[in-house]
Amino acid sequence: MAKPLIATQHLTSCFGCHMSILDIDDRILKLAKMVDFDRSPINDIKEFTWPVDIGIIEGGVSNDEHVEILKDFRKNCKVLIGIGSCAVANSVPSMRNTVPLKECLEEAYLNGPTIVDGGIIPNDEDIPILLDKVYPLHEVVKIDYFLPGCPPSADTIWNALVALLTGKELEFPYELIKYD
Ligand code: SF4
Predict the structure, then answer these.
(1) Can you tell me which atom of ligand 1 is nearest the CA of 20?
(2) Burial group, residue 4, by CB count within 10 angstroms (0-12, 13-18, 19+)
């Protein structure tokens, strides 16, 4: 019988949540027996080859390419999980939300202290177009489960995956959902 499929993706993020997935240590061998990975930076597969059972998204939604990726994940994943504070509540990437986009671009490319001899705001058609602000995942598509934390611990991710793969309710002991 075919194993369940998992897909993962990072959007605007530091990749720390993916590091936390890999931080399940030797349980990665158990996971490899339980599932196969489809689209993911872990295996560098960039398009869905099949509809998958569980999609995992890290990071906030910053540009038009992210919107398309997220919609593609929603379309191809039976269950979609947002992991990490950036995906769940915007967190670090949303620091730019307090400044108008035009001002952000001018500071980064025209007026910032590291700009010498003038600068130019990139506008090549191949470059994704920035959104007016950074959005958490659930403001773009329906998200089935949220795993907060920066990043969520490996144990939290492992518990969630095992529960979903074995058809159980997601339940976390207090130690996994306190953040002090
Ligand atoms: Fe990085 Fe934390 Fe955001 Fe995860 S939640 S992508 S670890 S900043």
Answers:
(1) 7
(2) middle
Give pLDDT, residue 178.
80
Q: Provide the percentage of residues in the chain whose pLDDT is more than 70.
A: 100
57 inside domain? yes
Q: Give 1's pLDDT tier (boundaries 50, 70, 90).
A: confident
Tokens read off for 13: 């993020």
83 to 52, 79, 118, 155: CA distances (angstroms): 17, 13, 39, 13
Number of domains, the chain: 1
Residue among 21, 27, 89 nearest 55 (CA) = 21
Tell me how far the alpha carbon of residue 11 lies from the centroid of ligand 1, in angstroms: 10
